[in-house]
Amino acid sequence: MDDLNLAIPENVFDFFAADPFGPMLTLSRAADDADSLIHSQLNLFLETIPSEAVSMACKDSQFLWFCNKAASVDREARIWIAERLILREVSRRRIQLLREGCEGRRPRPYGIPALADLNIDEEHLVPLSEFQFDGSRLLRNGHAFTVLSTTSSPNSTYWLLDMIYKERLSKPMSVRLDPLLFGPSDTFPSVSYRMLVYGQPLNWERISGLQQTEHGRWFPSSLSHQSEFTDFCWEPRGHEIHCLCEEVPLGRSVILQGSRYLHAIYVPTSGTVEHFDGALRLFTEEEVQVRHGLHVRKSGKLGIREKVFRTDEPIPKDSFGVITQAFFVWNYDVQSYFSKTLADPSALPK
Hints:
By secondary structure, this protein is an alpha+beta fold. The chain has 2 domains: 10-100, no CATH class; 111-350, no CATH class. It has 11 helices and 15 strands. Strands 1, 5, 8, 9, 10, 11, 12, 13 and 14 form a 9-stranded antiparallel sheet that branches. A 4-stranded antiparallel sheet has the order 2-3-4-6. The longest helix is centred in the first third of the chain and has 28 residues, at 73-100.
């Protein structure tokens, strides 16, 4: 699938790039629904998929498991291929947009009229206080927005935003809006997913008493989000304890995803986290190979960092734990470390 070079029509790309459910859940429905805005163009695109690719898909064990004895295996294979091609292209273009920056212009999506009066900082973040939240979307001037997606799944920051509001931290928090996932509020879907996060907090007494750096590394299990590994460290610096955690991508995937990188400063004397931010770190293939040979505590300024959220106001340490879990959603090593987590891995819409 990775070597299939097939141009995706721009109107088909735009439709799914702005869909918070993503092509894996909605493409099949749009292809079969004559009332869908993209129905005709999508089916024309399906017909352009080479028969050789269809034949290969029909031998793929994963496709055969999902196919479930469809009436038309050929059509089902074309849909299966198109879902993955479009998801890959959306991920690639998102990373490309972030890497290119704005070159003196307001980066996407901040150039649209609904955000024209909104000040953005040097890290492309905007205050959450400028938006209304309906439990799913950030609303402003008749448009709906989402927080920058941190993985190829368009719902990857759904739980992050949800936890920020549940912890009542929206006023001091700034976020990066996704450059692709936005649209008029009357047509941009409001989504809801099931996932429960709860459990025991970190042993903050032990963390407060650290005299030297504590660090570790986890390699992903079959259930975790695909990555090379995840590093973490707690580093005493004067009266502060700095926390770093990074989920490092596989070398072959850097054109599709960045690393999820978190930094926090805990002050034991106040018992609060005084600074907290999460970012995407964007690597070239050469940079990620260097990163694979380093631990996060020694990785320096490799790559480009695009902040996803940030606050410089004190927050409770328990809030730090649940928001960290939400930021690293689907990374079960992080979630197990910061708290005991019960999650529905499929996270299907209600």
